[in-house]
Amino acid sequence: MLKIENLHAYYGKSHVLHGVHFDVNAGEIVALLGRNGSGRSTTAKAIMGMVDCQGSVLWKGQQTLGKKA
């Protein structure tokens, strides 16, 4: 359902996510856990297209990264 591959995110020249990969299948519930500064909110923002990023975000098999809402 949601497939994240090789996701990299940037704030200006700062490279803050380095190659994140994960899959979320239908019916699953996923939580992002980690200490302050570990990239939880940046991961969510990258998936939603709110920060500069590279990689692949597939929703139901369709690439969403770089598309307008």
Explained architecture:
- The protein has one helix and four strands; from the N terminus they run E-E-H-E-E.
- It has 69 residues and is mainly beta.
- The chain has one domain.
- The mean pLDDT is 92.
Please render the helix and strand layout as text:
Elements: E1 2-11, E2 14-24, H1 40-47, E3 52-59, E4 62-63
Antiparallel strand pairs: 1-2, 1-3, 3-4
Count of folded domains: 1
Helix content: 10-25%
Q: Got a strand count?
A: 4
| Arithmetic mean of pLDDT | 92
Low-confidence stretches: none
What structural class do the secondary elements suggest? mainly beta
Main attributes?
mainly beta, 4-stranded antiparallel beta sheet, 69 residues, single chain
What is this entry, summarized?
The chain has 69 residues and is mostly beta strands.
